[in-house]
Amino acid sequence: MASSSAILPCNLKLRSSFTPSVSLQQYQQQKCGLRPSTHGLRVVRASAAPAVVSTSPTGVVLVDRSDAEKVHRLKTAYLEKAVPLLKEEFSYTNMHEVPKIEKIVVNCGIGDAAQNSKGLEAAMKDLSLITGQRPVKTKARQSIAGFKLREGSTVGIAVTLRGNLMYSFLDRLINLGLPRTRDFQGVNPNSFDGHGNYSIGMREQGVFPEIRFDALGKPRGMDVCITTTAKTDNEAQKLLSLLGMPFRQGVSTAPLVRKKKLKAVHFDSKKSKGRK
Questions:
Q1: 200-230 burial, b for 16+ CB within 10 Å, e for fewer?
Q2: Those residues with Cβ within 8 angstroms of residue 15's Cβ, 6 or more apart along the chain or in another chain
């Protein structure tokens, strides 16, 4: 029987106590810098475990740890988890009856945009980093002398998000932006407009990780309007709850009756007459 040093290329020697976990041919090829051949090898892949829908005691669909690696995990959670629960609760017969998020409008008011052009560009840069889309400038519709405002002057910026960008921004808003807000106790469940649309007001944009704290200048707030296809506020609130929107607990969700403001002509006050 030939010695081990005679059969090994590249002048390699095996130790007596070494027991390689691969074949001798693959070990020699790896040491000599050769690419091992996969001919005749059998690759066995582990079968993926079935996805388990996990829900909290309040009925909110939780995002699994395995779903965190997905690019559009909120959209996937809506299609696979939220839609069946909505169809079961509201007894929808058609798939198109299930409410969905149509668009998200993010706007930021800038009062001194006419006098501070650098501040306007900085605000547009920050909002583009947060939303992933460059905003547009909003113009004044009419002139107001009391506010020193002229028609056509820039008063703010706005972004309309749809599709994958919309779900990506909503995911970061729910899981990153709102929890990092100071003294956050949940969003108000009474901020629906009666047609299934929800609005959120934020005082600071620095809660998003895209904005660096050292480069943060003047604190700016923004308004987020979530437009849905729901017909009632109850359906829209259930949709946002399943997506993870942290509504404030213990707040009455009864519709508020807004009293109409009466003008002076509705009162029985006597009108002053001129001198006789």
A1: bebebbbbbeebeeeeeeeebebebbbbbbb
A2: none
Number of Cβ within a 10 Å radius of residue 4 = 13
Number of Cβ within 10 Å of residue 7's Cβ equals 11
For residue 242, name the pLDDT band (cuts at 50, 70, 90).
very high
pTM for the model stands at 0.65
Q: Rounded distance, CA 261 to CA 258, Å?
A: 9
| Mean pLDDT along residues 197-218 | 80
pLDDT tier for residue 183 given thresholds of 50, 70 and 90: confident
pLDDT in tens, 45-83: 444 444 455 555 555 555 556 665 666 788 888 998 899
Name residues whose C-beta falls within 8 Å of residue 220's C-beta, 6 or more positions apart in sequence.
108, 110, 123, 126, 204, 205
β-pairing, 198-202 vs 154-161, is unpaired
Is residue 161 within 8 A of residue 106, CB to CB? The reply is yes
pLDDT attached to residue 44: 43
Alpha carbons 155 and 157: distance in angstroms, whole number: 7
Write out 241-276 in H/E/C secondary structure. HHCCCCECCCCCCCCCCCCCCCCHHHCCCCCCCCCC
- Sheet of 154-161, strands arranged across: 136-139, 154-161, 101-109, 222-228, 198-202
Tally the C-alpha atoms within 13 A of residue 166's C-alpha that lie toward its C-beta: 17
